[in-house]
């Protein structure tokens, strides 16, 4: 497979991914999310400052009702990915640190935001493979030894693809670095819409599983 596309995506250094891989090792013991705890995380991480309920004045981000609605877990992960650059710029302007989220906190937060894995459709693996190329992932990463040398071999993340929460935690915590790296390379930060994140993760999970056989 030849690397292609014009966008850089999933730009993670090997050192960054080492922590993600360690977290992914605990996928089987993942704790179910709790909406009450998730509401507390939403407040603690300053999400509530920008995402106000409708009728309580304009916030800097979409209203709470726009982001807290029935949705798929990977669909929400895609929205978090898309949201990161604007939020990072806002935090940087105000002199605030990026609010990193632990995996258990992410599980609670996603439950609070009404994300349900049963709402994600079955992935289209062919479309996921197309996205991997079109979004420019292989400019930095390798798949089965082919591609860039900035990030890890994508099949090595393996168990992390099996947990949407682990995946969302990884891309949230490291998206500022990915956005910064893309900017330094003069490339646009990619966005995901519809079922694109579902298809991409589904393909990566399939490729990683095949590599262990």
Structural class by SSE content = mainly alpha
Sum up the overall morphology in one term.
globular
The biggest sheet, with number of strands, parallel, antiparallel or mixed sense and barrel status, is:
2 strands, antiparallel
Give the ordered list of helices and strands. HHHHHHHEEHH
**Taking Cα atoms only, what radius of gyration do you get, to the nearest Å?**
17 Å
Average pLDDT works out at 81
The number of E-state strands comes to 2
Offer a quick outline of the entry.
By secondary structure, the protein is mostly helical.
What would you note in describing this structure?
With 213 residues, the protein is an all-alpha fold. It has one domain. The chain is 50% helix and 2% strand. The protein has nine helices and two strands. It has helices at 14-24, 35-44, 47-50, 64-67, 73-93, 103-112, 125-134, 164-184, 196-211, and strands at 142-143, 146-147. A two-stranded antiparallel ribbon has the order 1-2. Strand 1 (142-143) and strand 2 form a beta hairpin. The protein is globular and about 50 Å long. Mean pLDDT is 81; it is low at 1-28.
């Amino acid at each position: 497979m030849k690397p292609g596309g014009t966008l850089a995506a999933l730009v993670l250094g090997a050192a960054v991914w080492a922590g993600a891989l360690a977290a992914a090792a605990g996928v089987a013991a993942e704790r179910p999310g709790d909406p009450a705890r998730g509401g507390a995380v939403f407040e603690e991480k300053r999400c509530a400052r920008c995402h106000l309920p409708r009728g309580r004045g304009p916030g800097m981000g979409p209203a709470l009702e726009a982001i807290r609605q029935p949705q798929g877990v990977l669909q929400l992960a895609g929205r978090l990915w898309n949201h990161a650059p604007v939020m990072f710029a806002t935090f940087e302007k105000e002199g605030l640190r990026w609010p990193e989220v632990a995996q258990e906190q992410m599980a609670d937060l996603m439950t609070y935001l009404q994300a349900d894995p049963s709402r994600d459709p079955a992935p289209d693996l062919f479309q996921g493979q197309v996205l991997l190329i079109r979004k420019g992932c292989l400019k930095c990463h390798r798949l089965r030894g082919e591609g860039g040398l900035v990030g890890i071999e994508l099949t090595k993340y393996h168990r992390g693809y099996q947990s949407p929460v682990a995946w969302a935690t990884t891309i949230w915590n490291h998206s500022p670095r990915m956005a910064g790296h893309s900017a330094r390379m003069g490339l646009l930060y990619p966005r995901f819409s519809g079922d694109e994140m579902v298809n991409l993760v589904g393909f990566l999970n399939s490729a990683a599983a095949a590599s262990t056989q």
